[in-house]
Design brief:
single chain; mainly beta; Maltoporin, Chain A; 22-stranded antiparallel β-barrel; 5-stranded mixed beta sheet; 5 helices; 5% helix; globular; disordered N terminus
Length: 682
C-alpha cells in the first residue's frame, strides 16, 4: 500500500481530523548499551466524568465576553498535581517518586518548539540529538538506555512496533500540549515493559468553554518555518479540540566540514513534519462519559549518511543525501462510568497504533517496515476514603511487524493492582504490583513502593521509592535475520530487568518562596541484550551484559519577587558498564541548568536558560573509535509581548553565544539561531 493511500485510509477511519504522534526512526547515531529497543503495554489514566458542565454557550444563554488575559507577572505556583505515578491526579507534595511536571504556560513562555527542547532541563535526563530537527534523538534517564524509557502520548505508547525504537527527534509539535510528566525510576509495576528506566507522558489540551481559535506563525534561522492552528471549545455535554501543526527546517548544517573529503561540499539537512491531532469528549449522562483521541504524523528527513572510501575503506560522509519518511497513526477511545456517588470509577479503553517507515540510501538500498499495535484495557478505581484509592487494571496487547519477505507477531496480557493511601497524618504511600504473561518469554512480575512523609513544623518532605522494571525483547530482536551480514535473531531472548531505588528530601523556606531538594538514585540492570559472536563466524543476540547507574539530582527554586522566578537543577550520574568497567557512552557525569523568568511589566515576559553538559565518553561518527566529548554550554533567551487581548508577538535566540559543539561526536549542534513570530486568537 502506498503512503498516500495509507493516509487516505487513516483520514476516513478517524472520521474527522486525524492526529499524530510523531516518530521517525533514523538510526544513524543511536547510542545505548546496545542499539536494540522495545515497545510496551500501558494502562490508561482514567478521565473522571464531570458532575457539572458549564452552560456557557447554550441556546438561550447569552454568551459571556471572554476576559482579557494579558501576560501577567510570574505567578506563584498553584497546587501542582501529577497523574503518572499512580494513574490518579495527586498533589506532587504527596508523591514519593521523583516526578517533574511541565505545563503549557512554561512551554509557551520559554518557546520550546519540540519535545526534546522541553525535556532538556529536566533533572536526571540527558537529551542527545545527532543533528538538527528530525534527526535521531535519544533521551537517557538516570543513565539507563534511551530504549528503557517508555513514552506515552495521550495514553498511547508510541514505540515503533516493528523495532521498538522511539525517536524523540520527530516529536516536533508542542502547540497542542497541555502538560508533560516525567517519572523517573523503574515503573513496570504499573506500566509493564519498557518502563525499566522511567516514563514520559505527553497530554494534549482538551477543549473547554466558548469556541476558541488560535493561529501561530514563526520563522527564523536555518530556513525554519513553524505554523500551528488550533480550534477548541465545549458546548453543553460535548468538548472538542483540533490542532494542525507544520514544522519545517530547510537548511541545518550537521556534518563537520573537516570530515568531508577534499572537494566535496556539505549538503545541509532538510526536515518537514506535518501533524494533525484531535481530542473529543462527551458527557452523555451524569455518570457516563466517552473520550476519543487521534493523531497522525507525516515526517520527512533528508540527511547525510556515511559510506566507505573504496581505497582506504575509511568511513566518509556521502556526497548525496539519504531520505527517511515516517507515517504514523494513533487513536484511542474509552468509556468512563462512575457509581456509588463517584467513589467507583470504571474505564474501558482501546488503542490502535500503526507506523510505516521507509528509508533509502544513495547507493540504491532501501528498507521499509510496517508495525502496528492493538490494545484493550480496563481500569477500576475505588475511593475507600477521601484521597485514598484501590485501583485494579488489566490489558491485552498484540504487536505485529512486517517487511518484504518477513512477518512476526507477539501478544501480552497483564494485570495490576495499585494502593494509594494515607497510613497516618502527613504520611502517604503508593504501592503496586503487576503480572505480565507474554506469548514468547512467559510470565514476569514487577512491583514498586513509594512512601513520603511531611514533617510538621518544618514542612520537610522525606521521600523515597524502590521498584523493579523490565524490557521485553522486540519482534526484530527475536525473529529478524540479516543473512547477508551473518546475523540472526534469537527467539530465546529473555527480558532485560532492573532493580532501582531513590531517597531524598524537599525543604520549603521563606514561607514557601524558596524550595530546595535533593535525591540519591541507584539502578542495577541485568540481562542486557548485546551482540554475541559465535564460533561459526555468525552473530546473534544474547542476555549477557550488566550495568549500574547511580547519582544525585538536586534543585533550588525561588520566587524572588512577584515578577522574578529562578530555578536551578544539577544532576550527577555515574553509569558503568559492569562488563568493561567503563563509563557508558553519552551519559555525562555532570549536567546543570538555570532558568530565570522575569516580567518587568504585565504585557512583557522574558526568560533565559543556561544549559550545561559536562564531558562524556563517546564514539566517533562511525561508532568504532572511542573518544571523549568535551561537552558544551548553551544560553537561550526568549521574549513574549501581549500587544492586545488577541495578539501576541514573540522572539527568541537559541545558543546566544554561538558556541560550536557536537552533542554527538561527528554531528554538529546548531549555532546561533534567531526566531520570531506572532500568535493571533479570537
Amino acid at each position: 500500500m502506498s503512503l498516500s493511500s495509507l493516509k487516505i485510509r487513516h483520514i476516513l477511519l478517524a472520521s474527522s481530523i486525524l492526529s499524530v504522534s510523531t516518530i521517525a526512526t533514523e538510526v544513524k547515531a543511536q547510542a545505548t548499551l546496545d542499539p536494540v529497543v522495545v515497545p510496551a503495554p500501558q494502562p490508561r489514566e482514567a478521565v473522571v466524568p464531570q458532575r457539572q458542565r458549564t452552560t456557557q454557550g447554550r441556546r438561550g444563554t447569552r454568551r459571556a465576553t471572554r476576559p482579557v488575559a494579558p501576560v501577567a507577572a510570574v505567578p506563584a505556583p498553584a497546587v501542582e498535581r501529577a497523574s503518572l505515578p499512580t494513574t490518579v491526579p495527586t498533589p506532587v507534595e504527596r508523591i514519593g517518586s521523583s516526578v517533574t511536571v511541565i505545563g503549557a504556560a512554561q512551554i509557551e513562555r520559554d518557546q520550546r518548539r519540540t519535545v526534546p527542547e522541553v525535556l532538556q532541563t529536566v533533572p536526571g535526563l540527558v537529551v542527545v540529538p545527532s543533528g538538527g530537527p528530525g534527526n535521531q534523538t535519544s533521551v537517557f534517564m538516570r543513565g539507563t538506555n534511551s530504549n528503557h524509557v517508555k513514552v506515552l502520548v495521550d495514553g498511547i505508547s508510541i514505540n515503533d512496533p516493528a523495532t521498538g525504537l522511539i525517536d524523540f527527534g520527530n516529536l516536533a509539535a508542542t502547540g497542542d500540549i497541555e502538560r508533560v510528566e516525567v517519572l523517573r525510576g523503574p515503573q513496570s509495576g504499573l506500566y509493564g515493559s519498557d518502563a525499566l528506566g522511567g516514563i514520559i507522558a505527553i497530554t494534549a489540551k482538551r477543549g473547554e468553554g466558548p469556541p476558541k481559535a488560535a493561529v501561530t506563525l514563526e520563522g527564523g534561522s536555518f530556513g525554519t518555518f513553524n505554523q500551528n492552528v488550533n480550534v477548541s471549545g465545549s458546548h453543553e455535554r460535548f468538548d472538542y479540540a483540533f490542532n494542525v501543526s507544520h514544522f519545517r527546517a530547510e537548511s541545518v548544517p550537521v556534518t563537520p566540514l573537516e570530515l568531508l573529503p577534499p572537494g566535496q561540499r556539505r549538503i545541509n539537512d532538510f526536515y518537514d513534519n506535518l501533524t494533525f491531532s484531535t481530542k473529543l469528549g462527551a458527557q452523555l449522562t451524569e455518570n457516563f462519559r466517552i473520550n476519543f483521541v487521534a493523531r497522525y504524523t507525516d515526517a520527512t528527513l533528508r540527511f547525510t549518511g556515511d559510506g566507505f572510501d573504496p581505497v582506504t575503506f575509511a568511513a566518509v560522509p556521502n556526497a548525496q543525501q539519504s531520505r527517511q519518511q515516517i507515517e504514523q497513526f494513533a487513536t484511542r477511545g474509552e468509556a468512563v462510568w462512575q457509581t456509588f456517588d463517584g467513589r467507583l470509577v470504571n474505564t474501558l479503553g482501546a488503542n490502535y497504533f500503526e507506523q510505516k517507515s521507509y528509508s533509502a540510501s544513495p547507493d540504491g538500498s532501501s528498507r521499509s517496515t510496517i508495525g502496528d499495535r492493538t490494545r484493550i484495557d480496563w481500569r477500576s478505581q475505588y475511593a475507600f476514603l477521601p484521597g485514598q484509592f484501590l485501583i485494579a487494571g488489566a490489558d491485552h496487547e498484540i504487536e505485529r511487524f512486517s517487511k518484504p519477505g518477513f512477518g512476526a507477531e507477539n501478544s501480552n496480557t497483564g494485570g495490576w493492582l495499585e494502593l494509594q493511601a494515607q497510613p497516618f497524618e502527613r504520611a502517604f504511600l503508593a504501592a503496586n504490583v503487576r503480572y505480565d504473561e507474554n506469548e514468547h518469554f512467559g510470565g514476569h512480575t514487577t512491583w514498586r513502593v513509594a512512601p513520603s512523609y511531611i514533617i510538621a513544623g518544618s514542612e520537610t518532605k522525606l521521600k523515597g521509592s524502590v521498584g523493579t522494571g523490565f524490557k521485553a525483547p522486540t519482534l526484530s530482536q527475536l525473529f529478524e535475520d540479516f543473512p547477508d551480514f551473518f546475523f540472526f535473531g534469537n527467539p530465546n531472548l529473555k527480558p532485560e530487568e532492573s532493580l532501582g531505588y531513590d531517597i531524598g528530601f524537599e525543604q520549603p523556606l521563606a514561607g514557601g518562596q524558596l524550595r530546595v531538594g535533593a535525591v540519591y538514585f541507584h539502578n542495577d540492570i541485568t540481562n542486557l541484550i548485546s551482540t554475541v559472536f559465535l564460533p561459526d563466524f555468525t552473530s546473534t543476540l544474547g542476555n549477557i551484559n550488566r550495568a549500574t547507574t547511580r547519582g544525585v539530582e538536586a534543585f533550588v527554586s525561588a520566587q524572588v519577587t512577584d515578577r522574578i522566578k529562578v530555578r536551578a537543577d544539577w544532576t550527577y550520574t555515574d553509569a558503568i558498564d559492569e562488563q568493561t568497567k567503563q563509563q557508558l557512552i553519552r551519559r555525562p557525569r555532570n549536567k546543570g541548568s538555570v532558568t530565570v523568568a522575569y516580567s518587568p511589566y504585565d504585557p512583557l515576559t522574558l526568560s533565559a536558560t543556561v544549559l550545561y553538559i559536562g564531558e562524556f565518553a563517546d564514539r566517533d561518527r562511525t561508532f568504532f573509535a572511542p573518544t571523549i566529548n568535551p561537552g558544551y554550554t548553551l544560553l537561550n533567551v526568549a521574549a513574549n509581548y501581549q500587544v492586545n487581548p488577541y495578539t501576541k508577538v514573540f522572539a527568541r535566540v537559541d545558543n546566544l553565544t554561538n558556541e560550536k559543539y557536537e552533542p554527538v561526536t561527528g554531528f554538529l549542534g546548531r549555532g546561533i539561531g534567531v526566531y520570531g513570530g506572532v500568535r493571533v486568537t479570537n
